[in-house]
Write a structure and sequence with these properties.
This protein has a single domain, classed as CDP-alcohol phosphotransferase transmembrane (TM) domain (Four Helix Bundle (Hemerythrin (Met), subunit A), Up-down Bundle), CATH 1.20.120. It is built from nine helices and two strands.
């Protein structure tokens, strides 16, 4: 009888697993956001989605810094994006405002979630394809993290002005579907990865960053409202800018 040859055990430095651990932490944040949504603690739920967004922005960069990129990590990150930015925000909107319009409200949730997963699948295929040449200055459609903040805009408005008249449920449903369609649209949106800044202006960038973080910590809802509105206006500006040739090409 042939004895099975034992494969040698491979030791991995724990630090190499840090990006995947960050992604798993983001998944935990997204799931816990849904839990807080069921409990009616929407402020905490939004905070957890923001934390998931920060972790999503860092895990890939940490992986490249540590040279620990892998197909497993890429797939895990994509699944985390769908949960945190496609499922959790839509669930929160349903639990917050749409339970009285169960059928229509749930349909809008399904549409948003489906658009999110389609957008992620298209992005993944585009990354793996060598045949497509795109302008690196822009994303195609609204990225999932940005879409998650956009779809929560009615909730931000209500949390900022709780005594204001309620936003009609039908309008919220239309808005959720609208944001979902932005995800899968061909509208160009600006990519931060391609943005550059002159060295002399770095100090102003740092100051601006401090101002935004301070505003977010002090006046979270009005800051998120402003960020969403600026982003929506920026989509129009980016669409016009995309028609101009890139001076660096």
């Amino acid at each position: 009888m042939n004895k099975k040859v034992k494969k040698p055990k491979v030791e991995l430095p724990i630090i190499q697993l840090l990006p995947n651990l960050m992604t798993i932490a983001a998944i935990c944040a997204g799931l816990t956001a849904i839990r807080f949504g069921f409990q009616g603690a929407f402020s905490l739920a939004v905070l957890l989605i923001l934390i998931a967004g920060v972790l999503d922005g860092l895990d890939g960069r940490v992986a490249r810094l540590l040279k620990s990129e892998s197909e497993f990590g890429a797939e895990l990150d994509s699944l985390a994006d769908f949960l945190n930015f496609g499922v959790a925000p839509a669930f929160l909107m349903y639990l917050w405002a749409l339970q009285d319009m169960r059928s229509a409200g749930w349909i809008s949730v399904l549409i948003f979630a489906a658009c999110s997963v389609i957008r992620l699948a298209r992005f993944n295929v585009g990354n793996k394809s060598d045949s497509t040449v795109e302008d690196m200055r822009f994303f195609t459609g609204v990225p999932s993290p940005a879409g998650s903040l956009l779809v929560l805009l009615p909730m931000f408005i209500s949390l900022q002005w709780p005594e204001a008249p309620l936003i009609p449920d039908s309008l919220i449903i239309v808005y959720i579907i609208f944001v979902g369609l932005l995800l899968i649209s061909r509208i160009p949106t600006w990519s931060l990865k391609a943005m550059t800044i002159y060295g002399d202006n770095v100090k102003f960038l740092f100051v601006g960053f401090v101002i935004v973080i301070s505003a977010l910590l002090t006046y979270p809802w009005i800051t998120l409202i402003v960020v969403d509105l600026v982003y929506l206006v920026g989509i129009i500006w980016t669409w016009r800018a995309s028609k101009k040739p890139d001076k660096h090409t």
